[in-house]
TrEMBL record, chain A:
UniProt KW keywords: Cell membrane, Coated pit, Endocytosis, Membrane, Protein transport, Transport
The species this protein was found in: Pundamilia nyererei
Domain Clathrin adaptor alpha/beta/gamma-adaptin appendage Ig-like subdomain: 751-864
UniProt feature, compositional bias: Low complexity: 650-664, 725-735
Molecular function per GO: clathrin adaptor activity
Pfam families associated with the record: Adaptin_N, Alpha_adaptin_C, Alpha_adaptinC2
Bilayer disposition of the protein: Peripheral membrane protein
Name by which UniProt lists this protein: AP-2 complex subunit alpha
SUPFAM superfamilies, sorted: ARM repeat, Clathrin adaptor appendage domain, Subdomain of clathrin and coatomer appendage domain
TrEMBL record, chain B:
PANTHER family reported for this sequence: ADAPTOR COMPLEXES SMALL SUBUNIT FAMILY
UniProt cross-references to InterPro entries, sorted A to Z: AP_complex_ssu (IPR016635), AP_mu_sigma_su (IPR022775), Longin-like_dom_sf (IPR011012)
Entry annotated with the keyword Transport: yes
GO process terms (BP): intracellular protein transport
Pfam families reported for this sequence: Clat_adaptor_s (PF01217)
Cellular component GO terms held in the UniProt record: cytoplasm; endomembrane system
Name of the protein in question: AP complex subunit sigma
Family the entry assigns: Belongs to the adaptor complexes small subunit family.
Function noted in UniProt: Component of the adaptor protein complex 4 (AP-4). Adaptor protein complexes are vesicle coat components involved both in vesicle formation and cargo selection. They control the vesicular transport of proteins in different trafficking pathways. AP-4 forms a non clathrin-associated coat on vesicles departing the trans-Golgi network (TGN) and may be involved in the targeting of proteins from the trans-Golgi network (TGN) to the endosomal-lysosomal system.
């Protein structure tokens, strides 16, 4: 068999491999390998010096053994010896062995480094490549220290061979990844970027991986690569397939390089330069057009290569999310792929469309494919494709199609693969809640979910349905009726029993009028499930029973009988026993009034985000596109819970004047528990005694350890006052004689100008400073008017504008010096030019010095240049707004504040302020017409930052809740701080 | 980036493995077993991309041999799928009708070819004659 071996066949090696192949059993193979290892070891240790050929042969055998999964703990030295061979094949095996087997064994590395050094200086391109390749593979710190400074030189030197450049580029990439501190790109940056222009396509292919990595780390320094990449791409895309002969693959010019170029462009926003952008759009259009042309070859390789580029182009279009035309074309193209006979294309199209669904421009277009996607979910034979279809349905879901999608997902659940059931359940639960208009539909959906896939319904899901039922009094009767019916099934999932127990315990009275669901029938139904349930569920049912005693006095005797029986009152489980004992005692000694208070209906839960989303997020990991954000549901679920909460909220707010929570807490939500808690404390010490052992939560919460109440906070903290936040008085700026820089009220002066551009910035007995300013894009011009209010001349009048600390790099303010003399009663003017480089938080300082009657006046103010000045208003529709809102979904992108109104809450005043802010005030967006919704884009030199704002006034409580979501977290925070002072 | 390239036969025996990130020997065995389990059981009409842990497997079958490439999400699936084919075409050109045996008996050469295509987890060259250039040089030296 050795004849198979090519070139300078190593006979011994071939024999060994044949032997291994012929081994009949694993044992025989191991035996043969051990024999060979012993043989090699003895050869290496032997006195006879081995020649290069033998060394190569043995090292090759070791590699083969390693491939078979056996550890190799010797031979490294021999491999290192091979490095100094002059024969390419020997050297290559040496390097290969080291690349595959050496980690950071420092002693060896030093020897290897020596060999590498020799090869790098050999000027033999093949040796240089091997050496560079070895550095790239091992990439240890010591290697980086030895070679990091040399590699860039090799990479950009004019006389370096192309193949060496290719290896050098990837070698540098490795060193940059492992030891970025040692790779100093500074002086090389521009020459490395220009490798994109290299004549040789191979060099560009290798260099582009390096440039992509560097661009991700230092986008600003490498941004010149955008125009170079665009022109390179344009040359490839527009070339005939014969132009780039060697790099044409099945009639597709340079497919791999094209993909890499399109990937590189995804590191950057759309090009600012109109010409570059135009050229790029042209490329993207050409790529989309080519997809529609008849194929140049029937081979699958041709269409795959073409489609690889197409998918990458679509990714770029989605990344830019700014060209509606291209987005819609991309969507249509993907729509065609959805029906393609190639499974690979269907899979990729579903995946790609998932990201497309969250773009406001294409969301509607994606929705038109709903039937195809549903069909994919039903008929695809590959679970990973079905999973993609499910993800896409989730992403394309909105109010208009929620019922259909949820129904399809539910029916799919019945046959879904076990591996994805839990995720599907979470998704259905989220969609049902998010898009519920009709709460009976929501309740039905969740109960169906429990019925179909009860085992996969996590606690979060059934907690949530109960929270919602408790908070919505219009659905309680329906919920009670539905669970009652669901419990009729002979085999019920335990989760159904839990939901049933809880809901009937609270709202069983709503259906008790019907003799078919009379109190006793309800009780018997629940109790028929009791013995089949686990301890926590039984505990929950016991709590439901005691609630029944309160709801239906006629059941008291029956229930007491149940509680009194040995299996309860002497239950070996301490929790069950305790509940049985306590409930029995409570029901026998407490008066009806006391019972009614203790067992009162649960108070509404605070409006809060669904924990289901958090769970889904955790399951999918942070990278998942289809997972919308926690607070997103909070917003949209506002319709769900918000309405119901409104009542208790205002009551809570009224109460909160007396007992106030910590200002950081979500006031609108948590307060609803306060009055109830207060009432309960009055209910008598007896109750506290009775319950003191069973749990720490509020007394009415007999079911506390079922997990609901842990969410409710105890209204204990009364020290903090809400007013702290609202202390900023509106009528600020009393004149100050003391020139202490910066003025104590500087911040308040600043706040006055957040929503307006003109006015009096400062005034005291001597001086008045007026201000007029205008802003366009990221530029601004400010006119300062210094008025001398006295009749005496100001001497040595000078002003300095400074940007302290970080601000220096964020904001560029230029001013011309002013006249040093200001006559009495005169006014002088100063112009400032302002450029916003990037977003910022601090305000520039304006220091004014002058002599008035010999005394030096020195005061420092903050110039009212705030980040919102660079807003461009953005008009959008309701669906767009929520789509974007959804996109800005990382927790840090949101900032929220709840604060007391400092000024009039008059609608017109608020509107004027919001317009003054610079954003667009959007009508008919928020389901609650009382709320204000704004959108805008902050223009800085480097980037555009999209911002969305929502202001929810509560006139009765004189409170606001302000929420901001921006594409940059620091901006959300800053805007929130600024705005909280305005209303 | 590309995390690894594997060649396994239908019996699940590894014929070539090249890792571009360090993986311990014991975990290699587990990973290779997983890969075999995931890919070999799939039918023709299933898609060639499999999600596995935090990366994706792109696989392509040639007779009894499977080539599996592990990639992160920074790679384009279809382009890797065709890169595999390009690799096989190069092998085919060099060995004239490559077979599993060619790969076993010429492991060093297969490695040389692969190293010319992928270095350090990134595509370095796609032009067939340039990929084969070093081997052609070697073979000339041996012949002379």
């Amino acid at each position: 068999m050795p004849a198979v071996s090519k070139g300078d066949g190593m006979r011994g090696l071939a024999v060994f491999i044949s032997d291994i192949r012929n081994c009949k059993s694993k044992e025989a193979e191991i035996k043969r390998i051990n024999k060979e290892l012993a043989n090699i070891r003895s050869k290496f240790k032997g006195d006879k010096a081995l020649d290069g050929y033998s060394k190569k042969k043995y090292v090759c055998k070791l590699l083969f053994i390693f491939l078979l999964g056996h550890d190799i703990d010797f031979g490294h030295m021999e491999a290192v010896n091979l490095l100094s061979s002059n024969k390419y094949t020997e050297k290559q095996i040496g390097y290969l062995f080291i690349s595959v087997l050496v980690n950071s064994n420092s002693e060896l590395i030093r020897l290897i480094n020596n060999a590498i050094k020799n090869d790098l200086s050999s000027r033999n391109p093949t040796f240089m490549c091997l050496a560079l390749h070895c550095i790239a593979n091992v990439g240890s710190r010591e290697m980086a220290e030895a070679f990091a400074s040399e590699i860039p030189r090799i990479l950009v030197a004019g006389d370096t061979m192309d193949s060496v450049k290719q290896s050098a580029a990837l070698c540098l990439l490795r060193l940059y990844k492992t030891s970025p501190d040692l790779v100093l790109m500074g002086e090389w940056t521009s020459r490395v970027v220009h490798l994109l222009n290299d004549q040789h396509m191979g060099v560009v292919t290798a260099a582009i991986s390096l440039i992509t990595c560097l661009s991700q780390k230092n986008p600003d320094e490498f941004k010149t690569c955008v125009s170079l990449a665009v022109s390179r791409l344009s040359r490839i895309v527009s070339s005939a397939s014969t132009d780039l002969q060697d790099y044409t693959y099945y009639f597709v010019p340079a497919p791999w390089l094209s993909c890499k170029l399109l990937r590189l462009l995804q590191c950057y926003p759309p090009p600012e330069d109109g010409a570059v952008k135009g050229r790029l759009v042209e490329c993207l259009e050409t790529i989309l057009n080519k997809a529609q042309e008849p194929p140049k070859s029937k081979k699958v390789q041709h269409s795959n290569a073409k489609n690889a580029i197409l998918f990458e182009a679509i990714s770029l279009i989605i990344h830019y999310d700014s060209e509606p035309n291209l987005l819609v074309r991309a969507c249509n193209q993907l729509g065609q792929f959805l029906q393609h006979r190639e499974t690979n294309l269907r899979y990729l199209a579903l995946e790609s469309m998932c990201t497309l669904a969250s773009s406001e421009f294409s969301h509607e277009a994606v929705k038109t494919h709903i039937e195809t996607v549903i069909n994919a979910l039903k008929t695809e034979r590959d679970v990973s494709v079905r999973q993609r279809a499910a993800d896409l349905l989730y992403a394309m879901c909105d109010r208009s199609n929620a019922k259909q999608i949820v129904a399809e997902m539910l029916s799919y659940l019945e046959t879904a693969d076990y591996s994805i059931r839990e995720e599907m359940v979470l998704k259905v639960a989220i969609l049902a809640e998010k898009y519920a208009v009709d709460y009976s539909w929501y309740v039905d959906t969740i109960l169906n979910l429990i019925r179909i896939a009860g085992d996969y319904v996590s606690e979060e899901v059934w907690y949530r349905v109960i929270q919602i039922v408790i908070n919505r009094d219009d659905v309680q009767g329906y919920a009670a009726k539905t669970v009652f019916e669901a419990l009729q099934a002979p085999a019920c999932h335990e989760n159904m029993v839990k939901v049933g127990g809880y809901i009937l315990g609270e709202f069983g009275n709503l259906i008790a009028g019907d003799p078919r669901s009379s109190p006793l029938v309800q009780f018997n139904l629940l109790h028929s499930k009791f013995h089949l349930c686990s301890v926590p569920t039984r505990a929950l049912l016991l709590s439901a029973y005691i609630k029944f005693i309160n709801l239906f006095p006629e059941t008291k005797a029956t229930i007491q009988e149940v509680l009194r029986c040995d299996s309860q009152i002497r239950n070996s489980d301490v929790e069950l026993q305790q509940r049985a004992v306590e409930y029995l005692k409570l029901s026998s000694i407490a008066s009806t009034d006391v019972l009614a208070t203790v067992l009162e209906e649960m108070p509404p839960f605070p409006e809060r985000e669904s924990s289901i989303l958090a769970k889904l997020k955790k399951k999918k990991g942070p990278g998942a596109v289809s997972v919308t954000e926690l607070d997103d549901s909070k917003r949209e679920a506002g319709e769900l819970n918000g309405g119901a909460d409104r009542g208790p909220d205002t009551a809570a707010m009224a109460a909160s004047n007396a007992s106030t929570p910590s200002p950081s807490a979500d006031l609108l939500g948590i307060r609803s528990a306060a009055p109830v808690g207060a009432a309960q404390t009055n209910a008598g010490s007896l109750l506290v005694d009775v319950f003191s052992d069973s749990g720490p939560a509020a007394p009415s919460a007999a079911v506390n350890d079922d997990g609901f109440l842990r969410d409710l906070e105890q209204p204990t903290e009364t020290s903090d006052s809400l007013l702290v936040e609202g202390s900023g008085d509106s009528d600020s700026a009393p004149p100050s004689e003391d020139p202490a820089p910066p003025l104590s009220e500087a911040d308040e002066l600043l706040n006055k100008f957040v929503c307006k551009n003109n006015g009096v910035l400062f005034e005291n007995q001597l001086l008045q400073i007026g201000i007029k300013s205008e802003y366009r894009q990221n530029l601004g011009r400010m006119y300062l008017f210094y008025g001398n209010k006295t009749s005496v001349q100001f001497a040595s009048f000078s002003t300095t504008v400074s940007c302290p600390g970080e601000l220096q790099a964020q904001l560029n303010v230029q001013s011309k010096p002013v006249e040093p003399l200001v006559e009495g009663g005169a006014q002088i003017q100063q112009v400032l030019n302002i450029e916003c480089i990037t977003d910022f938080c601090d305000a520039p300082l304006l220091n004014i010095k002058f002599r008035y009657g010999g005394a030096l006046q020195n005061l420092t103010l903050k110039l009212p240049v705030t980040i919102n000045k660079f807003f461009q208003p953005t008009e959008m529709s309701s669906s767009d707004f929520f789509q974007r809102w959804k996109q800005l979904s990382q927790p840090q992108q949101e900032a929220q504040k709840i604060f007391k109104a400092n000024h009039s809450m008059d609608t017109e005043v608020l509107k004027a302020k919001l317009l003054g802010l610079g954003t667009a005030l959007l009508d008919n967006i928020d389901p609650n017409p009382e709320n204000y919704v704004c959108a805008g884009v902050i223009q800085t030199k480097g980037q555009q930052i999209g911002c969305l704002l929502r202001l929810e006034p509560n006139a009765q409580a004189q409170m606001y809740r302000l929420t901001l979501r921006c594409s940059k977290d620091t901006v959300s925070k800053r805007l929130c701080e600024l705005l909280a002072q305005q209303f | 980036m590309i995390k690894f390239v594997l060649m396994v036969n239908r019996q699940g025996q590894t014929r070539l493995s090249r890792y571009y990130h360090s993986v311990e020997l014991s975990r290699r065995a587990a990973l290779e077993a997983d890969v075999v389990r995931y890919c070999l059981s799939r039918k023709k009409d299933q898609c060639s991309f499999v999600e596995y842990k935090d990366f994706k497997l792109v696989y392509r079958q040639y007779a009894a041999l499977y080539i599996v490439v592990g990639i992160t999400d920074s790679e384009n699936e279809l382009s890797i799928y065709e890169l595999v084919h390009n690799f096989v075409e190069v092998l085919d050109k060099y060995f004239s009708r490559v077979s599993e045996l060619d790969i076993m008996f010429n492991l060093d050469r297969v490695h040389i070819i692969l190293d010319e295509i992928i270095q350090n987890g990134h595509i370095v060259e796609t032009n067939k004659s340039r990929i084969l250039a070093p081997l052609t040089t070697i073979d000339k030296m041996v012949d002379s």
